[in-house]
From TrEMBL:
Keywords: Membrane, Transmembrane, Transmembrane helix. It comes from Winmispira thermophila (strain ATCC 49972 / DSM 6192 / RI 19.B1) (Spirochaeta thermophila). The chain crosses the membrane at residues 9-34, 54-76, 88-108, 120-144, 151-178. The lineage of its organism: Bacteria, Pseudomonadati, Spirochaetota, Spirochaetia, Winmispirales. This is Uncharacterized protein.
Length: 181
């Protein structure tokens, strides 16, 4: 197993988080029709429309969330990076703490079912994106440590740069600075 330096761990967590978050978000946007759902009567009260500059900036801002994740997970890295099924441990931890058992009443969470007025279908809609993200993040992070290759690093740099560029272009487009062709 490769050395567990903080800098290496930080980059891997930030890049995997940003990439998987972007992919899960795009899949949810396309297959779960977030544009219409967020504009609907129930969610428009607290969700920004998908053409908001803040939503466009979201993927780039995930770099900061990735830094937080890396700082939080680093002291526990050996628990999931050195165990046979460490990815499963990490997956259950991420899914459990960031989605199912959140502190606040978010859509799809245990607290959300209890304290919000959202109908059950709204809560169920949040599950696929959370499962795809948490599984992808956990599995890929552990796989990168199990089979470290230069390709992982190169691919992560290219994909994160692409996501950052797309995010900046989305912000510029939503502000009317960059016109769609």
């Amino acid at each position: 197993m490769e050395e567990h330096t903080f800098r290496t761990f930080l980059w891997r967590v930030v890049s995997i988080h940003t990439i998987v978050y972007f992919i899960a978000g795009i899949l949810a946007l396309v297959f779960m029709n977030y544009k219409e759902l967020f504009a609907g009567e129930m969610l428009s009260v607290f969700m920004r429309p998908v053409d908001s500059p803040w939503v466009a900036a979201g993927p780039a801002l995930q770099v900061f969330r990735g830094i937080l994740l890396a700082c939080i997970l680093y002291p526990f890295r050996k628990v999931f990076l050195e165990a046979s099924y460490g990815w499963l441990t990490l997956w259950l931890l991420v899914l459990g703490l960031s989605f199912v058992s959140t502190i606040g009443p978010t859509v799809g969470s245990f607290e959300g079912f209890i304290y919000t007025k959202f109908p059950i279908p709204y809560h169920l809609l949040a599950i696929p994106e959370a499962v795809v993200y948490s599984f992808g993040f956990s599995y890929l992070l552990c796989a990168w440590y199990r089979r470290p290759r230069r390709l992982w690093a190169v691919l992560s740099i290219v994909l994160v740069a692409f996501i950052l560029l797309m995010s900046v272009m989305g912000v510029l487009s939503s502000l009317g600075i960059l016109n769609a062709a």
